[in-house]
Amino acid sequence: MMERSSAMGMIGMGAAALALALGCGSGDTDAPERSMVPTQPSSQQSAAPSASNRPPVIDRVVLRPARPMPGETVEAVVEATDPDGDALRLSYSWSVNRRSAGTGPTLTGHPLGKDDRIEVTVVASDGFAESLSVKKSTRVENQAPEMAGVAIHPTEGVLPGDELTALVDAKDADEESLRYTYAWLVNGDETREKGRTFSTEELKRGDKVSVRVSARDADETSRPMTSPGVEISNSPPEIGSIPRAQQDGDTFRYQFEAADPDGDRSLRWSLNEAPTGMSIDPVMGVAMWKPSESQAGTQTIEVQVTDQAGDGSKLRFEVTVSSIEKPIEQPPASPSRY
């Protein structure tokens, strides 16, 4: 009997040596394939562990994205191996700010806010033994503000000296208060003005104004956005006060004067309303009138001046005429633009 047992032992050792030789005959020395997703044990796997079963090993856990933004879905990507080549099953346990937040390979349906701490604990099982748990954590990143729109008010009819105001629409996913930085540009060149409003006092007709704005929360600044340009409009000439009538015999002379903010020199004068016989030099702005006896009483005069762009101002006033005295000026209404 002793000899038979020894033979059986030798047969067993020979079978083991043959199995080892067959395993090495392919020349493949790679480690067992890593499991990236949960798998179930195969139907052929033994229902009970062998005495030599070894537990799985989790090699790496990666969170994607590594720096999540508020509202994003976070996924745990796991690399695990089993020394015995057994199929693996992975279990996940998520927490947000140390409070349970679900299971599964992804963290979904949980509102994430700035600075929230996310942690996942992963365990691998081959059906017989479990790996050591591995934890991976991260924090929710601050989300930079976003510019939605920038405009200037008013957009039309802006004259030199008018004040412009920047209108800004911005949003912050973290609902933090925002501060704005303004840079005003004239004809594409940045000026020294950095406030929300801008004076066009030193500008002239045809200049184009825009504003570039960025928003900042406590940590980050948005990408800047530039508004559409606003063009400075033409300024009409302005008529001075009513000139004193100069008498030359029985003819009266009025010298009207006007100034143009844009520096236009080719101004043109005309009479919108005047007593019969009055005329005005369109270039010089000199009105001449020789009243007749039938024109005694109150007469209305309205003079206007126009620049090259067709914009102008007008002045309306009245004079009183006696039969022998010169006209007497009356206080007029303020000059008006048209």
A few lines on this structure:
By secondary structure, the chain is mainly β. It contains 1 helix and 26 strands.
Molecular structure report:
Residues 1-46 have low confidence and may be disordered. The protein folds into three domains: 55-141, Immunoglobulin-like (Sandwich); 146-231, Immunoglobulin-like, CATH 2.60.40; 238-337, Immunoglobulin-like (Sandwich). It is built from one helix and 26 strands. It has one helix spanning 2-25; strands spanning 57-64, 74-81, 89-96, 99-102, 106-107, 117-125, 134-139, 146-153, 163-171, 179-186, 189-190, 197-199, 208-216, 225-226, 230-231, 238-239, 246-248, 251-255, 258-259, 268-273, 279-280, 286-289, 297-306, 312-321, 328-329, 336-337. Strands 10, 11, 13, 14 and 15 form a five-stranded antiparallel sheet that branches. Strands 20, 23, 24, 25 and 26 form a five-stranded antiparallel sheet that branches. The chain has 338 residues and is mainly beta. Strand 23 and strand 24 (312-321) form a beta hairpin.
